[in-house]
Amino acid sequence: MIMTENANRKFNIAGTAFAVSSLFFGVPGPLIIKYIAPHIDVWTQNFLRYVVAAAVLIPFALISRERAIFNKIIWRKTLIIAFINVIMQCCWGAAFYYINPAFITLLAKSSIFWTSAISLIFFADERLLVKSRNFWLSFFIVVIGIIGVTVFKNDFSTKASIIGIVLTLGFAFSWAIYTISIKVLLKSSNSTTSFAVVSVYTAIALGILAFVFGKPQQSMAMSNFGWFLLAISAVTSIAGSHSTYYAAIKRIGSTIPPLIVLAQPFLVLLVSRVVFNEYLNAYQWFFGLLLIAGSALAIKSQDYLNR
Fold this sequence. Notes:
This protein has 307 residues and is mainly α. Helices cover 72% and strands 0% of the residues.
């Protein structure tokens, strides 16, 4: 799923379009998860979203020219990645039952820094980042941004806020491990097929969790509109966002797409303010922008590796 092809230095319309598509595809998910939360438990919602995503992705994997979905090696390698993905999705979905979507999406962007930091451990060629001033500057900026945007949350000291923040940071860290595991295990694999198989494994695992800890029967009481929204979130934020993101990386490299997607929290906030009356206070705006700037600098610091 992580592409190794060199990006074309010229402006690439298709690559840019995929990156922007990934940005917008990622917006509905957080809002819909929060909207459906009062009507269905997190275990069931996670399960149903991944069932839909897997159902959408499997046909594309079946008709791919590589026919990699029938490769046993892919199924073995993706099992580890799916395990990490299950933990990540449990943290992600549960966070919306405690705090609001824009705040979660903003805090979750710290995953970009954690990915760079953990890469220092696993990839010898990336340990040169230790000598990069920009990398260490991004570290301090991200840490300050995380502390500021959480501490200055109006209801920071409440139990719900603390649980939601811990779950979101758990997601961010899990996302970093997930991304690195993909780079290690699936660097030469077809991205659509790999993510389709991960989705199947994830759906099965989340299904077991739903029947053990959740109440799947609640879904029968959901309105048609609720089912429609759930399907939209699966198609856009799971299948669509991931697919277009990696298509963008393949065409324009691994630096520009993450920078474009950094705008996502602010798009989510525009809608969340209307639907959930969510807003950030002046201090959170300041530290939130600091967090985004630090994450962008962490991405930019990778240029040091190309010297």
